[in-house]
Design goal:
Helix content: under 10%
Low-confidence stretches: none
Mean pLDDT: 95
Distance between the termini: 44 Å
CATH architecture of the largest domain: 3 Solenoid
Shape: globular
CATH superfamily of the largest domain: Single-stranded right-handed beta-helix, Pectin lyase-like
Number of helices: 0
CATH topology of the largest domain: Pectate Lyase C-like
CATH class of the largest domain: Mainly Beta
Strand content: over 45%
Amino acid sequence: MRIYRLPQGEVPAPISITAGGLPLPVSLCYVSACPYNRRWPGHQRTTDQREIAYFARLAGTGPITFRYTPGRAFSVCTVRPLSAKVTPTVKDGTITFTLPRAGGYSVELDGLHNALHLFLDPPMNYRVSPDARGVRYFGPGVHRIGILHLKDDETVYIDEGAVVYGCIHGDGVQRVRILGRGILDNSENVEEILRKVDKLGDGSVDVGNSRREHTIHLINSSDIEIEGITIRDSLLYNIACFGCSNLTVKNCKTIGCWRYNSDGIDLHNCRNARVADCFVRSYDDSLCAKGHPGYRYDTCEDILFENCVVWNDWGKALEIGAETSAEHLRRITFRNCDIIHATHPAIDIMNVDCGRVHDVLFDDIRIEYDTVTQRPAMQKNDETPFVVDPHSTYMPLAVCFNIQKHPEYSGGLDRRGYVYDITLRNIRIYADRMPSSSLYGYDEEHAVSDITVDGFFLGDRRITSLEEARFHLGKHTRNVQIR
């Protein structure tokens, strides 16, 4: 086991926790406090819609025992994902639990607010020399880089004791790596307002009035490895890849996302990509495959998302779309993933453009539901607060596949797309009742078709009919079967 030290200047959270008997430093972050969103209103989301959360980082293979003294009263402690089967015990206000293996976990007291996230990294199997050619090495301490523009054959290394404030971008680069166990922090990156608007907050402001930067942004690039880092407080997407190939994103963590459009890991028009062993908490779509015009590939294909834990504070957890203007979005697999919180459909295909979405597999996906989930709402103006309903019966959809024309995301295109040859295998719902799922097409030609559900469970009970699974088949849906 190896505990990462905080860099000088990083304010530790006032939390007492040990790992394997050793003090574990805890970092602070802000996350979304409520599922409240809006069209870009001409200014950033207000800080009253965020709350403090915590995260701690260390390395080890497990099992490792933790002792956590929150310093406040609580009734129930839950460690997620539930599939890890971690059973905490409480004595004299101290919680003891054992994490079985490397991965991302959430420790929650009486619900999801002010959670403690634990990122247990596997041991590092590589070394990076600060003096090696092509290495940009950020050692222990605080660094401010603005926007770092990658060149061919470069490696960016962020030490476990480093916090790097800024963004990392690359356009047309080859053989690049972003590695380490440190923190890439985007909190100092703020939008540049290009022109003022007369009326703020009515939801009609064009996003073109601002310039915003993704944290990691790669365009038309190849042979990419992103491994180990933690991204905090992204202004826009955490990892955005457009027209990239031969891409690996492994053991990355995203946390502290509360600002508008802070997606997790989005792959647009990419080929031969693998995203594995990541923990993604995002305030917009979490793990996505999308299609856009203008990049070197007119397809998004041969994509694998696996062994990931997702906490989605707004948007879709596992998604293809909504942008689907690539000719094909195909051979895409989501495998062995835990969705520990969701606000909208957990498994989603939203085709609003002309692309063909097909040959898609969702395999061994576990979806956890809270006893009370707040219904997401769109904010109408600056003065309207979010209203918490303590008795909410809202449940996000488990599965949603649809073809539609969207006033914003369809971009004025009259061509509609297709969704077919989709398999849902071993989907497990952890809830006190079955959530709904929804499938609907656009017209007879553009139907949602050939959907196979091979193992759909409520807890350990296998569901054998679409009615019991609460699959609602809308118009222009055909050949949907469950077994």
